[in-house]
From TrEMBL:
Residues 309-422 form the Mur ligase C-terminal domain. Coiled coil: none annotated. Pathway: Cell wall biogenesis; peptidoglycan biosynthesis. It comes from Algibacter pectinivorans. This is UDP-N-acetylmuramoylalanine--D-glutamate ligase. SUPFAM superfamilies: MurCD N-terminal domain (SSF51984), MurD-like peptide ligases, catalytic domain (SSF53623), MurD-like peptide ligases, peptide-binding domain (SSF53244). One of its GO terms (cellular component) is cytoplasm. InterPro entries: Mur-like_cat_sf, Mur_ligase_C, Mur_ligase_C_dom_sf, Mur_ligase_cen, MurD. It is an enzyme of class 6 (ligase). One of its GO terms (biological process) is peptidoglycan biosynthetic process. Its main location: cytoplasm. Its EC number is 6.3.2.9. The lineage of its organism: Bacteria, Pseudomonadati, Bacteroidota, Flavobacteriia, Flavobacteriales.
C-alpha cells in the first residue's frame, strides 16, 4: 500500500510538530515554506529526514498531496490554496490533524481576547490533579505533544484561523470567551463570517459535550438564539444570576453545575479587572466539570501569575509605572487595558491596523490619556483619530525612542502603557518581540 502524502505549508511550530507526528504515523511528509524556516526548525527536519523547502512553493510537490496541513497564518485567498481546494485535496489545521491521534479529553478555548490567560489559568488549575498538556497557540505544538507526551487531557488555545480548517475536531469542553471585531481582513470585512468561524468550535459537539460562554456578550447570545448548538450550555455572567454556570454575586463567584455549588471570593483572585473575573469563571467551570476539588480551584486562582505581555507590570521608575500589554493586538484588548488604568497614562499605540474602529476607546482616552505615542510604519489613522483628543501626540518607528519620549512626558504618579491595539508585523517579528523590546528599553532608561 502506498503511503499517504502529507504536505505541510509553513515550517513553524505547528508545521514542524505536524511533520514529526505525520512521519511517525506512516505518512510521506513534505514541508514547504514561502519564507525562511528558522534554523532550529530546519535542524529538526534534517535530523528526522523529513523532506522540506523554504523561500518557495514547488507546486508539483504540493498539488500531489493526499492531505494538506496549512499554517493558520496563510489566508484562503492565496492562489496556491485555491488550486489545492480546486483539486479536492482536504486542507486541515494542525489541531484537526493531531486530534485524530489522541483519545485525550480536550478543552478548547477560543474568543477574541483572553484566550492565552484563560488557557494558561485553566491548565494551572488542572495540572494540580490531572495529567494535562497546554497547546494550540501556546508553547510546544499540539501535534508534537500528542507524539511525545500523549497527555490524558489537553487545554488548547484555538484561534479562528485554526477553526476555519477543522472537519471532525470536537472538544469535550469548549470555551467561547467573547467575540469582538478582529482579523476582519481575513473574513471579507464581514463580522458575521468571523462570528461563524468562532462558533465552529462547537459544530461537532453533542449533548454530552459542554459549551461554556459569556452570557453578557450580546454577539454570542444573539448567534446562539438563531443558531442553536447541540452542546450542554454553561454560561457565565457578571450581571445576572445563572442557574447552571457561573455568576458574580456581590464580590463572590457562584458556580453551579448539576446542583453542586462552589463559592469563591473575587478579592483573592490574583488577576485584576472585570475581564479577568470572567476568565476565572470560565477556567473554574472547566475545572469543576473535570471534578477538580473546590479547595484546589480556589488556591490556584489565588497563586496564578499573569501571562507575559498581558498588562505585565515591568518597572516603576521615578514613581512612574511601565506596563507591557504588547499582546493587545486589537481594539477590544486595549479597551480592557485602558479601562483598568487608574493613573494618568502615556499610551504607546500602533502597528498593523486590521480595519480597527477606535470609537469605543474615546471615553477612556478623554478621561485618562495625557499623551499618545504612535509606534508604527503608518500612523496616519491614529493621528487623525486621536489628534484632537490629547495635547501631545508624537510618532516614531523605534521602540527605544518611544520609551524615551514616554519617560520625558510622564511625571510622578503616571503610568506608561504599551497597548498597541494593532498587529506587530510592520516593525517587529511578533507581539512577543515587541513586548521584549519594550521591557529592554524600559530597563535601559
Amino acid at each position: 500500500m502506498t503511503k499517504q502524502r502529507l504536505v505541510i505549508l509553513g515550517g513553524g511550530e505547528s508545521g514542524v510538530g505536524t511533520a514529526l507526528l505525520g512521519k511517525a504515523k506512516g505518512y510521506e511528509v513534505f514541508v514547504s515554506d514561502k519564507g525562511k524556516i528558522k534554523e532550529k526548525y530546519k535542524q529538526v527536519l534534517i535530523h528526522n529526514e523529513i523532506d522540506w523547502e523554504d523561500e518557495s512553493h514547488t507546486e508539483s510537490k504540493i498539488l500531489n498531496a493526499d492531505i494538506v496541513m496549512k499554517s493558520p497564518g496563510i489566508p484562503d485567498k492565496v492562489e496556491l490554496i485555491k488550486q489545492i481546494r480546486k483539486k479536492g485535496i482536504p486542507v486541515v489545521s494542525e489541531i484537526e490533524f493531531a486530534s485524530k491521534f489522541t483519545e485525550a479529553t480536550i478543552v478548547g478555548i477560543t474568543g477574541s481576547n483572553g484566550k492565552t490567560t484563560t488557557a494558561t489559568l485553566t491548565h494551572h488549575i488542572l495540572k494540580e490533579a490531572l495529567n494535562v498538556g497546554l497547546a494550540g497557540n501556546i508553547g510546544d505544538s499540539f501535534a508534537k505533544q500528542v507524539l511525545e507526551e500523549d497527555f490524558k487531557n489537553y487545554v488548547l488555545e484555538i484561534s479562528s484561523f485554526q477553526l476555519d480548517d477543522i472537519i471532525d475536531f470536537k472538544p469535550n469542553i469548549a470555551v467561547l470567551l467573547n467575540i469582538t471585531p478582529d482579523h476582519l481582513d481575513r473574513y471579507d470585512y464581514k463580522f458575521e463570517n468571523y462570528i461563524k468561524s468562532k462558533f465552529r468550535i462547537a459544530m461537532n459537539q453533542t449533548k454530552d459535550d459542554y459549551l461554556i460562554y459569556d452570557a453578557d456578550d450580546e454577539v454570542i447570545v444573539e448567534h446562539l438564539k438563531n443558531n442553536p448548538v447541540q452542546s450542554t450550555l454553561l454560561p457565565f455572567s457578571l450581571v445576572k444570576p445563572i442557574k447552571n454556570g457561573a455568576y458574580l454575586d456581590n464580590e463572590n463567584i457562584r458556580l453551579t453545575i448539576n446542583n453542586n455549588e462552589i463559592i469563591m471570593p473575587t478579592a483573592k483572585i490574583k488577576l485584576e479587572g472585570n475581564h479577568n473575573t470572567k476568565n476565572a469563571m470560565a477556567a473554574s467551570t472547566v475545572a469543576h466539570l473535570l471534578k477538580i476539588r473546590k479547595q484546589t480551584i480556589r488556591e490556584s486562582l489565588e497563586n496564578f501569575q499573569a501571562v507575559e505581555h498581558r498588562l505585565e507590570e515591568v518597572l516603576k521608575i521615578n514613581k512612574v509605572q511601565y506596563i507591557n500589554d504588547s499582546k493587545a493586538t486589537n481594539v477590544n484588548a486595549t479597551y480592557y487595558a485602558l479601562e483598568s488604568m487608574s493613573a494618568p497614562t502615556v499610551w504607546i499605540v500602533g502597528g498593523v491596523d486590521k480595519g480597527n474602529n477606535y470609537e469605543e476607546l474615546f471615553p477612556f482616552v478623554n478621561e485618562k490619556v495625557k499623551a499618545i505615542i504612535c509606534l508604527g510604519v503608518d500612523n496616519e489613522k491614529l493621528m487623525n483619530t486621536f489628534g484632537n483628543m490629547v495635547d501631545v501626540i508624537i510618532e516614531t518607528q523605534y521602540m527605544q525612542e518611544a520609551v524615551k519620549i514616554a519617560y520625558k512626558l510622564s511625571e510622578s504618579g503616571d503610568s506608561v502603557l504599551l497597548s498597541p491595539a494593532c498587529a506587530s508585523f510592520d516593525l517587529f517579528e511578533n507581539y512577543e518581540d515587541r513586548g521584549r523590546q519594550f521591557k529592554d528599553a524600559v530597563r535601559n532608561l
